[in-house]
Write a structure and sequence with these properties.
The chain is α/β, with parallel strands linked by helices and 397 residues long. It has one domain. The chain contains 11 helices and 12 strands. Helix 6 crosses helix 11 and helix 8 runs antiparallel to helix 9. The longest helix has 23 residues.
């Protein structure tokens, strides 16, 4: 690929386009088979499947919530506090990436949908086999990679959430944002899929309301996922009320407060009602602790909100990346859902500034660590068409 990104600059992305479900399971299985190269695998897979993921959310109406996170501990903290609410989570990674570098990797050939790989070159004339007998092409690409410990958490602890489409991780820089996205950036991304956003500040809100949200601590990841699966019925009322409050429009501040009271009633039922005794017994059996944590809800007026103008002004975008990001956002604004008659939305604040996080050891991959980055995106960003973009190397005679 060249250094200008022209390999996919002319491709148009359309929010109204219909795409298949992303191949989440393929990605996880690939990362498990080549655990030493999980960052490379995820980068290759995301170039095509990140936008496919957004479009699939948009068409399916799943309305995810966008949250910033800088390391695996923050991601784990956020996931445990919002997983019970039943919303899809888009974690925007704001930590450092590796320096831009050429990387060598292996693309599986057997029983795999090739729906990604923009900017990578495949050497189709060479086929190798893994110890399990699986066939691979060698591929060459240019990339900035996420730390290995983040993909370790995704593949080992959050596997079921990822493969079900309930959890996704995207590096801010590779999707056109600065490493510290402002509220407007997250709101702009949320607008694309009609979702919501978590903000560290609700200063822009017209009013703030307090809420207690249930969460579970001390439970293993496998037991936690089993709880979400086996006790869907007990969680249904809380999840429905929460989605209505956070990702829905509200006709007035009073309407938003009514939605908040519905959430509070559902939480009280979940914590105390005999109808949910089996849920609480399972938590105790798995040595978990069910409690609540405070969150703040800021009610925003859509017409005068900070995200009503271009939310990506000053973001780290250039050429193809900038055009794609703004085109998708403008499409979403032109399709705004009844914002004039239902002008209020909610920003959610989780109180993350009160938590204490300890960063894990740096990944073992070459070139990873803290360093200064250019504000410009190279041709290795993730805003690629939801199709196969890998190219075959040829030899000219």
């Amino acid at each position: 690929m060249n250094k200008t990104g022209s390999a996919y600059e002319s491709e148009r992305l359309d929010l109204s386009g219909v795409v298949d479900r992303p191949s989440y399971q393929v990605c996880i299985e690939w990362m498990k088979e080549l655990p030493e190269a999980r960052p490379e695998t995820f980068d290759f897979w995301a170039r095509g499947n990140f936008v496919r993921h957004l479009l699939y959310h948009r068409r399916g109406g799943s309305q995810p919530i966008f949250v910033e996170a800088g390391n695996p501990e923050e991601m784990r903290w956020v996931y445990r506090r919002l997983a019970l609410a039943g919303v899809a989570l888009e974690l925007i990674y704001t930590g450092p990436l590796s320096k831009p570098q050429w990387i060598k990797h292996w693309q599986p050939l057997d029983d795999v949908v090739i729906d990604c790989g923009w900017g990578y070159i495949a050497f189709a004339g060479t086929i190798v086999r893994s110890p399990s007998g699986r066939r691979y092409w060698p591929v060459l690409g240019y990339a900035s990679l996420m730390p290995a410990e983040i993909l370790q958490w995704l593949a080992e602890e959050a596997e079921q959430a990822f493969t079900s489409g309930r959890l996704f991780i995207a590096p801010a820089e590779l999707i056109g944002l600065n490493r510290a996205p402002r509220v407007q950036h997250l709101r702009g991304l949320a607008d694309m899929v009609d979702g919501g956003a978590v903000a560290e500040s609700v200063d822009a809100a017209l009013a703030a309301i307090e809420l207690e949200i249930p969460w579970i601590d001390g439970m293993g990841s496998a037991d936690f996922e089993k709880l979400l699966q086996d006790h869907r019925q007990e969680l249904q009322e809380f999840q429905t009320a929460f989605r209505s409050l956070v990702v829905g429009y509200h006709a007035s501040e009073a309407d938003a407060d009514l939605a908040r009271r519905r959430v509070s009633d559902a939480v009280s039922e979940l914590m105390r009602s005999s109808r949910h005794a089996a849920f609480r017994v399972f938590v105790n059996k798995c040595k978990g602790t069910l409690s609540t944590f405070p969150a703040a809800m800021g009610v925003l007026g859509a017409a005068g909100a900070a995200y009503s103008h271009d939310p990506f002004a000053g973001a780290a975008v250039v050429a193809a990346a900038g055009k794609v990001l703004r085109d998708l956002w403008r499409q979403s604004r032109s399709e705004a859902r009844a914002s004039s008659s239902s002008p209020y939305r909610v920003l959610l604040q989780l109180g993350m500034q009160k938590a204490r996080f300890v960063s894990g050891p740096p990944g073992s991959g070459a070139g990873r660590g803290t360093h200064k980055r250019s504000a410009k995106l190279g041709p290795y960003h993730w805003l690629c068409p939801p199709t196969c973009g890998v190219r075959a190397a040829v030899v000219k005679k």
